[in-house]
## 1
Amino acid sequence: MERINTYLAKHLWAQMLLSVLAASVLIMVVFPGRSFLSVVVRTAVMSAGGIAVVAAARRKEKRASGGSTDRMVALDRKLRKGDVPTDPEEREAMRGLVEQRLHRTRHRVLAQVGLTVLFGAVVAATAVTAGPRQTVGLTVLSVVFLGWCFFYGNRNHRRLLTMRRALSADTAARRT
């Protein structure tokens, strides 16, 4: 599993391809009747904005961690495992990455509330305008997706805060 995570972290195009394919399959299950190719093309076109946002965030993370994809992936692995870097240069890169990610997630609670309201509105609109199959499908998707987002988002935020404390505590100990 670690090899898959590393591969996907290094190759953003693979993440995007898998996301578009997974979304296309989900659309085909909930709204059957269209050709798979047309759904894939439409999903890819509609995902272009999200892909641009992810690419921009990746560029900022690479810059914060020292400019290399391999270094960013290595730091991300250490962050997920909770390993505090010992090398001073690597510590500074980790500090930059952690601060960049914490800055990016500063409005996460508001975003979670907004996402919940948005998904609730989509499910309600689907219940009014579509059949029970679509309503049940989107309800299940919403509950699973929001649960996943909240669980992993909060877990990653705790990891970032823990790493920031570890890096600052060690820095303060070195100063004295």
Note: Helices lie at 2-10, 12-30, 36-46, 48-64, 69-81, 88-104, 108-129, 132-175.
## 2
Amino acid sequence: MHHRRSNRRISLKGAAVTAVGTLLLSACGRGGGGEAAPSPSRSSHIICAEEGKVAGSGSTAQQNAMKHWLQEYQSACPGVQLRYSPIGSGGGVAQFLRGATHFGGSDTPLSEDDVEFSRRACPGSRAIDLPMVGGPVAIGYNIEGVDSLVLNASTLARIFDSRITMWNDPQIQRLNPDARLPETEISAVHRSDDSGTTQNFNAYLADAAPEEWPYEKVKAWQARGGHAAPGSDGVVSTVSSQSGSIGYFELSFAKAKGLPTVKLDTGAPDPVAVSARSASAGIAAAKVAGSGQDLTLEFDYRTSAPGAYPIVLVTYEIVCADGTPADVLPALKSFLTYTASEEVQAGLARIHYAPLPEKVASRVRHVVGTLS
């Protein structure tokens, strides 16, 4: 049964309040009913819905992937309007829970409290986490004369907690014996907004360097000192413009700015460079920790497997298991089926994201088919 909810039937204009940027797309197909009926498409992996307005907001980690998805989806299906505002994971979850959007993007799964709150946004049901796009959290830096840099979890923890403050510090030099490290002050840049990227970076440091990182695995930055910037695009812009700086953001942002990235000493035979391939190796070791339709993943941030990059995240699309308005449901299911398709996932590496393991992606597609 499909439910209509007055608190979730909103205008697209109202759904985008406070959005840093807005991405628009169109889709096509057959709507009005509960299921998205097949409709001719120029891409075999896209089944369109004829009409519907879908609002989403959240993670900036998936911002570049979303841009790519929107371009292809719009090219194939010029009909239904869908809006995604990249305002950060915290904002995306908050907007979804108060009924302002039909899906939220978050780099961390819903908390137990969030699940309870979601029962008001999803009458008779609850929200679930659907992993959709994976990727590494790159550590980008801007140090004059240094184009290769190796760090480990302990050193990163001390840098981002303002306990290592100079680039020629002996602990950094030991990891880079052949590098000419300058006597330059370190400027560590972190997110100013609540961020799933921050939470994943916190989780990595807390698990891989527990003695040096006493902070909780939460979306808000807690460490001492440093400089703050909003969104992944704000952090990467600050790092790229400020000599001596270092920051964390998704690999696609580093590639777009041409910033060098840190290789991690994980205990593997060789330091691990960040890439879509090395991130996929890290994500492949993840376990599904959710139950029922919820597909929350659990990562091993302490892996020392050769070629496995440990600072990885998955962006979840947060949706109602049941209770999405009938005039929205076909378009929402069409879009999520497309993003989880084998063809789309296989193409993510070309834009510096990591595809979901097929065993996970196939489960996502199955759950999307059950949404009502």
Note: Confidence is low (pLDDT under 50) at residues 1-42.
## 3
Amino acid sequence: MKKSLLIFSALLLGVNASAQKVEFEEYTLDNGLHVILHQDKSAPVVVTSVLYHVGAKDENPERTGFAHFFEHLLFEGTKNIERGDWFKIVTANGGQNNAYTSDDKTYYYEVFPSNNLELGLWMESERLLHPVINQVGVNTQNEVVKEEKRLRMDNQPYGQLFGQVKKNLFKKHPYRWETIGSMEHLDAATLDEFLDFNHKYYVPNNAVLVVAGDIEIDQAKAWIQQYFGVIPRGKEVVRNFEKEDPITTEIRAEYQDPNIQIPMLVQAYRTPSMKTRDARVLDMISAVLSGGKSSRLYKKIVDEKKMALELASFSFSQEDYGIYFIYGLPMQGFTLQDLVKEIDEEIVKLQTELISEKDYQKLQNIFEKRYVDSNSDIEDLADNLATYYKLYGDVNLINTNIDIYRSITREEIREVAKKYLNTNQRLILDYIPEKNANN
């Protein structure tokens, strides 16, 4: 009976996964703008989004922070949208909007009632064709970005953690600096430099437009041609980033944070591009080690031995490289080195022993659920469509990426752990409270 129930559950999973298939249509305008349309009439809403293939890695090392700065700057206004009116227009028409920047991309989107699709398309075409970039806007957003940095990093406990890891793991590739960049670099930048950045990267052939939701395909295509088709093609963006040398000796580093009282241990490993199969295997390794309270690291170090207040790991994969993080906050009476010892024991087990069939099935269930959840929201689905096309080079991964996870074997999990999670290939960062010179 138990076996029959398991088979029945597996069949249900297969049905659910199939039901989640995302239908889409894609094409490219003459100016190089790629367009992806997804019709979903389950709710009267529509998402208009544009992903620009520009992130912090595309910046001049002496002008870091430009990509993130533009995320703010391009809400200032356009030739036909007065300064300060962008958010008023969106709100007045029942919509919401947002944007974000990473090392690899900048993403803008609006969510409107479906009868305002034309408005969303016009606004995004305005951002691309008619942005107003002047000294007033630059000065205004400079202060906004500085305040964001103070709140999220400078005055935030563990706010410098990611930056410290990046600068130690990357010496040549532009992943070595923080996405928010340097305030000194932004202060020193001229208006012409901002204009040049916009001219180089904010071009239709460096972008993908996604329209998802309650749409009529033919009408959407007509409006897209009307508003985006007239935008001139830009020069092709050429990238040729310097490759990192392999890490062959353990890196030791320390950072003193005045905003914390509890030290943090960080173990970090440089890993391959998110486009690789190994990156997916590392996602699974992360779930084995710290995916919930029954995971190996949490159960052993936090629950049973009570050596840590918190402990987790995750695989942060990007277009060119990734970072595998393990971090922990020790309980009083235990040191950062105590945590290193316990963590290393579990990694060695993963490198030398196959995970059990039971744990493997649990892992598969976790990733099936993630797959279903990742496309259940129309905003996330639009983001996924754009990202799979522009960063992975295959929009249909929105449907097939789960098949890669399904095909990963227990043996691969062991071998990938052996390949990347070695003591001579890692950073050990002691992230500690600031030392009082008077003590």
Note: The longest strand covers residues 308-317.
